[in-house]
Amino acid sequence: MTDQWPLLVADPLEGEQLVSSQLRPRAGAVAIDRSDYPSACNRVRDLCGTWGGAGIPLIPVTPSENVDPRWSRILNESNIDGIEGSDLLGDDAVSEYTDAEGPASAQLIRVLVDLERRPTVQTVRGMSTDDPWHLAYLTVAGDLSSQPHPQNTWNDLRRDLTFDDVLTIRGVSENGSAAGLLALVRDFSAATAVELSRSKLPSGLQGGYNRGFPSSSRFAWSDDETSQRFGPNIVVVFEPGSSEDLALVWNLRARFLHPLRFPLAVPLTSTVEDDIRHLIQSGADHHFGFDHNLALTSISVASDRVATLAKSVGFKAVDPWELLRPIGGYCSVSTDIVRFNGGKARVASFTPSDFQAIGGSYLGSHQGTWMKRKTVVVDAPLPPSRTMRRQIYHGDSHYLEGPITTGGRSDGFTLIRVPSGLEVVSALSVDHGLQLTESAPGKAAEHLIRAAGRNLSMFGSAGVVETLTELTRGRSVSIVKRRLNQYLAEPQTDESSDRYQTLLDRLNRGLGSPDAEELGYPTFDRMRQLLRMRRDAAQQWVSWAMAGGLILRGVEANCTRCGHKQWRPLSEAVPSLVCHACGQTIDSPHGYNQINFRYRASEVLLRAMSHDVLSHVLAMRYVCGKLGGRPLVFGGYPGVEFRPLDSERVTAEADVIVVLRNGEIILGECKANARGLSQEELDKLWRSADQLGARATFAATLDRAVNCGEEWRVTEGPTGRPHFALTAEHLFDLGGTIGASGEDLFAWRTDYSSRFSADHQELTGADLARRIDEEFSTYVERTATDYDQHTRAPWTRGPND
Asked: What is the Cα gyration radius of the chain?
């Protein structure tokens, strides 16, 4: 991906990039029998004896049945390599969620033998599984086997070596209680078996909370909104002996790296309300953000019982599936500057940070190859995609935020590959059985964006649209209007009527793109008038447009023999020119005292305007910016088509596709003027959204809201999918406060956001439009100012700065 954000391009990643590398043991989710609690406890004990086991998900299943699809996201997006083989699952169920080079659990005891001291470890040994609190204690403290592991000899260990030989292990001697659970959590004299499993893995990828996509919208942009609102402030109430709630609590705690407070579990007993209140009064909850949201959830307890209990203790009852999210797990993290060439780069198999954290005695042996590295480009993490996540063939590239590779030699290097932006969008399309190609308007808009140099706001003005229209349609516009007026034969034609505008559009399309000689070549003063800018701002805008190759500067030469006028670039402005019309030399083509520069559109601009893609570009800029910018939006493309994988027939299309970092898609239909949107166009957009599972759709126009019909005010599609409209009041309001104070980011707007005069009177009508133009002039002037210079080099400040 070249740095063209928000435009996604097909160019592979080039140059130096800051990357984050996360090295972890190979691991797989563990299936447990949802009806066999003692067996599930044994699997937790196995995880505590596995290196990095505290960050591995538990998945409850019914023997011989497929995995509940609600677990799919955790299995596909957690930092694991699939599902561990199990008698509980068939081969097909395992292979669906497992990499070609799948899990290979590493023994924790192999890491512990290299520790310099003998740790004291807290477990649940001695606590009966019949104790109602056993599940709550087990998910906090964990357990360790007292038997030697069959793989001891594989790791050059004594065959009969056990955890009791290298650790001092504590158990639980009293009956469980809320007070005892808190005492267990807050006992710093010993590490828990859960905590011990992350030995020599100094970093963890914690689940996010109290952050996410902008909330100033009538609909959610992410399925994580609920989970982020509550964060780790979760209590699970469970029926004693529930394997499903064991998995629920374990996965919730693993997501937040097993904190010393919530998430915690409380059994459904006669004292459950008092137990939950005791946890709160003892400070087991976390405080973050402005709200204090506490969630109560369960799989084993009926939802109405949970709701009643939540109300009595001041919690909110929440569906557990809204709280379960992918688990980052534990790893060794390092950062580095990597040089990419054609989307490829070489990174060290193990970094100095890895050797310092894990040790050469482990990484230098064969166990070092049992490691997985995820390399993430810091400024461009990849969205999740089933197609990119797992490949069929051994050795194929697969990705989760970045490429996943297998460890190698301690002194070796690993080749990593990063897909381009459009290749990522293509993978998201394949997820839905479609292949993606750029449309002709999309390619024209792409070249326009490249020429703009990522500063798409320089198009964000009605004056700019008018200027570019005159540059690219020029004299042909007057030809169309003259012929239309002659056809209508009306002395005073109403050019604002729908009938007139419809005929004008048809005749304009019929004439097609103008020839070079039809184009107008405005002077700077004429362009400044069209731009509605101050002189300094207009000069800055013209300079920007020329630097990007959008407009060309030249002179108009007048032939003294035949009167033909022609535009010539400055490179041809020599003392004598030959007339294109009559072939004779022009004696004084520029007059005798000055050259009056004239401007014309470049081929890039002509092509873009012939496809009417300004609305595509500005809509993509607006949506990407308002949804949080680069941290939350992967990017977009201004014009795509979709075909079934086995067909060349276009079955879906969109004028704009925007991809969020969470992999969600937004599709848009864009029109230069409001009259272009019809119900048929909306139906096509919504059918495309259905095929791609889009999160939302929108329609955009450069027209004012007053010119928009009822079809622009639709707020959802036939299936209830959110839909919104963007008009000039959105696209040209660069200085507005859209989304402030809880205002909907994409609400219908009848005018630009409020502005006030010097005497605090709200501006309306022409006064407000002039203020919008003035703000755009100010914005353009600011683009020529380096506002960081006074901070970067304070000696450049003047006495009044």
From this structure: 33
pLDDT score recorded for residue 390: 84
Q: What is the mean pLDDT of residues 23-43?
A: 95
Q: Using CA atoms, how far apart are residues 749 and 649, in angstroms rounded to an integer?
A: 38
For residue 523, list its beta bridge partners. Answer: 598
Rounded distance between C-alpha atoms, residue 310 and residue 272, angstroms: 11
Residue 312 above 70 pLDDT?
yes
Tokens representing residue 770 in the block: 């002039």
- Report the C-alpha gap between 132 and 137 in whole angstroms: 10
Q: How many CB atoms lie within 10 A of CB 46?
A: 18
What pLDDT does 736 receive?
A: 55
User: Which pLDDT belongs to residue 679?
Assistant: 94
For residues 501 and 672, the model is more confident at: 672
Q: Which CATH architecture does the domain made up of 612-760 adopt?
A: 3-Layer(aba) Sandwich (3.40)
Residue with tokens 């949201």: 293
H/E run at residue 164: helix 163-166
Candidate CATH numbers 3.40.1010, 1.10.3470, 3.40.50, 3.90.550; the one for domain 225-322 = 3.40.1010
The four Cα atoms 220, 222, 224, 225 give a dihedral, to 10 degrees, of -20
User: How far is 90 from 72, CA to CA, in rounded Å?
Assistant: 16
Please enumerate, as own/partner, the contacts of 748-755 that have beta carbons within 8 Å and a separation of 24 or more: 748/705, 748/712, 748/713, 748/724, 749/705, 750/705, 750/706, 751/705, 753/729
Beta-strand relationship, 597-601 and 585-586 = unpaired
CB contact set of 731 (below 8 Å; sequence gap of 6+)? 460, 615, 618, 619, 622, 700, 702
Q: Please, which residues bridge with residue 762 across strands?
A: 756
- Find the farthest-apart pair of alpha carbons in the chain and give their distance in angstroms, rounded: 111
Task: Provide the residue ranges of all domains of the chain, joining segments of one domain with +.
Answer: 15-23+328-431, 24-204, 225-322, 446-608, 612-760
Cis-peptide into 718, omega within 30 deg:
no
Question: How far, in Å, CA of 681 to CA of 465, rounded?
Answer: 24
Find, among 291, 190, 180, 186, the residue nearest to 233 by Cα.
291
262 within 8 A of 182, measured Cβ to Cβ: no
| Cα 27 from chain centroid (whole Å) | 26
Number of H helices, E strands in the chain: 28, 29
Q: What is the pLDDT of residues 318-374, one digit of tens each?
A: 999 999 999 999 999 999 999 999 999 999 989 999 999 888 878 877 666 788 999
The per-residue pLDDT for range 729-771, each reduced to its tens digit, is: 999 988 654 444 456 778 899 999 889 988 889 999 999 999 9
Q: Which residues of 673-709 are buried (b: 16+ CB within 10 A; e: fewer)?
A: bbbbbeeeebeebbebbbbbebbbbbbbbbbbbebbe
Lowest-pLDDT range, 193-197, 426-430, 550-554, 694-698?
Answer: 550-554
DSSP secondary structure letter of residue 794: G
* 333 touches 378 (CB < 8 A): no
Residue 592's pLDDT is 54
Structural contact between residues 276 and 266, judged by C-beta atoms closer than 8 angstroms: yes
